[in-house]
């Protein structure tokens, strides 16, 4: 199966400012890594591979990716889709592993900074943890959506087989 990036730099810019000239090869590498590890862990192998093989332009997989309103226990809930979660996972990896640094003033792309100070490293990790917490919130919403829509997603291994709690953590 060919790698298809589910998010773009424009998607990331919806949540945080980054340079639109960010190295595309590096960007795709981060996206592919989070899709192959975190997204596959969340969805389970069967649903992940069916989802990635689908065009995601219409139907249930488009709803999974882009979000939709659904009803649970008589309450209308807005599900935002996988894109915000993927964006925050990407920001987590970028904050930790790239020369992209999130400061209080916005994003800074560091160049030739081999002697990064301890304080900068601590600040980068604090920001990465913050992004991971936001991604986790969206991941939990995805689990709730899939559990509520399990009839539409027969490949989803929900409550009883995979996700016995509403909290799932991921590695980045």
What does this structure look like?
This protein is mainly alpha-helical and 172 residues long. The protein is built from 6 helices and 4 strands; from the N terminus they run ααααββαββα. The chain has helices at residues 9-15, 24-43, 45-53, 60-66, 82-97, 118-148, and strands spanning 68-72, 75-79, 100-103, 106-109. The longest helix has 31 residues, at 118-148.
Outline type:
globular
Can you summarize the main beta sheet? 2 strands, antiparallel
Number of helices: 6
Ends distance = 23 Å
Poorly predicted runs of 5 or more residues: 161-167
Number of strands: 4
Number of domains: 1
Give the assembly state of these chains: single chain
Please tell me how large the radius of gyration is: 17 Å
Order of helices and strands: HHHHEEHEEH
Which percent range fits the helix content?
40-55%
What proportion of the residues form beta strands (DSSP E)? 5-15%
> Would you tell me the structural class of the helices and strands?
mainly alpha
On the 0-100 scale, what is the average pLDDT? 84
Q: Which helices and strands appear, and what pairs or packs with what?
A:
Layout: H1 9-15, H2 24-43, H3 45-53, H4 60-66, E1 68-72, E2 75-79, H5 82-97, E3 100-103, E4 106-109, H6 118-148
Antiparallel strand pairs: 1-2, 3-4
Features:
single chain, 172 residues, mainly alpha, two-stranded antiparallel ribbon, 6 helices, 4 strands
């Amino acid at each position: 199966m060919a790698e298809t990036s589910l998010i773009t730099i424009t998607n990331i810019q919806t949540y945080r400012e980054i340079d639109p000239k960010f190295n595309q090869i590096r960007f795709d590498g981060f996206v592919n890594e989070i899709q192959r590890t975190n997204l596959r862990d969340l969805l389970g192998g069967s649903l992940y591979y069916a989802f990635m093989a689908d065009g995601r332009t219409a139907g249930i997989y488009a709803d999974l990716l882009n979000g939709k309103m659904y009803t649970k226990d008589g309450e209308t809930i807005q599900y935002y889709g996988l894109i915000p979660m993927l964006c925050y996972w990407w920001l987590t990896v970028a904050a930790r592993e790239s020369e992209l640094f999130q400061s209080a003033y916005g994003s800074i792309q560091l160049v030739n900074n081999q002697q990064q100070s301890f304080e900068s490293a601590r600040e980068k990790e604090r920001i990465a943890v913050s992004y991971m917490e936001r991604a986790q919130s969206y991941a939990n919403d995805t689990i709730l959506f899939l559990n509520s829509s399990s009839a539409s997603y027969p490949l989803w291994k929900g409550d009883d087989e995979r996700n016995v709690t509403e909290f799932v953590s991921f590695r980045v």
